[in-house]
Amino acid sequence: MPEGHSVHRIARQFAVNVVGRRVAASSPQGRFAEGAALLDGRFATRVRAVGKQMFLEFDDAVWLRVHLGMYGAWDFAGQISVDATIASANGRMGQTNQRGTDEQILDAAGENSLTSIGAPRRSRVRMSEQTTGLAGEDEWPPPVVGQVRLRLLTDVTCADLRGPTACEVLSADEVAQVIAKLGPDPLVDDVHEGEERFVAAVRRKPTPIGLLLMDQSIVSGIGNVYRAELLFRARLDPHTPGRDVPEETVREIWRDWVRLLRVGVETGQMMTMDDLDPEAYRLALANRDDRHWVYHRTGLPCRRCGTSVVLEEMGARKLYWCPGCQT
């Protein structure tokens, strides 16, 4: 499932390439025809990401809400400029100047791709090496491929939405109601106020911390990967009731989430291992198996203590954890 870092990257890409432009909206698949008709011909005026949801505002306070869910993704084509806040000095998406890494490094699934953000998939669009360039210039607009729920088209940029859990047109009041139900997001809310909300919510719950971290009303943006990694980094048993987790540990989980989310937005990848030398960091950017402590490592020895990493189901999702380090 696309987690919070992906949605923030998508919103920033919309801010640079779509906001401030008139948009032609359509639903090639047909499942969002009425909603697309309400958006068609409007100017995009603002975009917000909160946790795993994106909200794109159009004129007359008409909003598009998208929740990618398990399988959703946005595919981009055409002239695409990179948001400077998630690009390195020479400006290509997915680059980082950390630990001596100064060129674009993509993982095998294209997780930090400029052309497809969300559920990993092979992009259908050929991108040039320039920060801003026309992809798919042989045919414009680009042909529709597969089941496209919503296509948003400016004069030079195309954004195709596939497989979302939610795609709907809302009023400003309805957007406010949705956001009010969400837990704090470190990139949206005041970090210190968010910490206090998170600590208070966790510490009053008898629910296992492994479930609380996936509850979007408790904290926004954390999914299966970040849950496993945050709990490992905190050396915390996933089954511990929230109210029994020491307050300082809860605070450190929040602060760790703040750090990891920012890294994820910068690199486009859920990088959860620290203190890697430059070569190890490059490998981690390129290979998902090299960037996590416990996620997707069932039966393999823990990187810290050697105990076999276990897999169980919690909240109908796969949970990876180390019984040696986390009990």
Automatic annotation (TrEMBL):
Domain FPG-type residue range list: 293-327
Question: Which cofactors does this protein require?
Answer: Zn(2+)
Q: Does the keyword Lyase apply?
A: yes
Keywords noted in UniProt: DNA damage, DNA repair, DNA-binding, Endonuclease, Glycosidase, Hydrolase, Lyase, Metal-binding, Multifunctional enzyme, Nuclease, Zinc, Zinc-finger
Q: Which GO MF term does the entry hold, naming one?
A: class I DNA-(apurinic or apyrimidinic site) endonuclease activity
What InterPro entries does this protein's entry cite? FPG_cat, FPG_N, H2TH_FPG, Ribosomal_uS13-like_H2TH, Znf_DNA_glyclase/AP_lyase, Znf_FPG/IleRS
Q: What is its EC number?
A: 4.2.99.18
- Keyword Repeat on entry: no
Family annotation (SUPFAM superfamilies): Glucocorticoid receptor-like (DNA-binding domain), N-terminal domain of MutM-like DNA repair proteins, S13-like H2TH domain
Q: Biological process GO terms, please?
A: base-excision repair
Give start and end of each Formamidopyrimidine-DNA glycosylase catalytic domain.
2-100
Q: Which SMART domains match?
A: Fapy_DNA_glyco, H2TH
- The record lists the membrane-crossing segments as none
Pfam families, sorted: Fapy_DNA_glyco, H2TH, zf-FPG_IleRS
First-level EC class: lyase
The UniProt entry, under PANTHER family, shows:
ENDONUCLEASE 8
Assigned protein family: Belongs to the FPG family.
What name goes with this protein?
DNA-(apurinic or apyrimidinic site) lyase
This chain's source organism reads Microbacterium ginsengisoli
Q: Which gene encodes it?
A: nei1_2
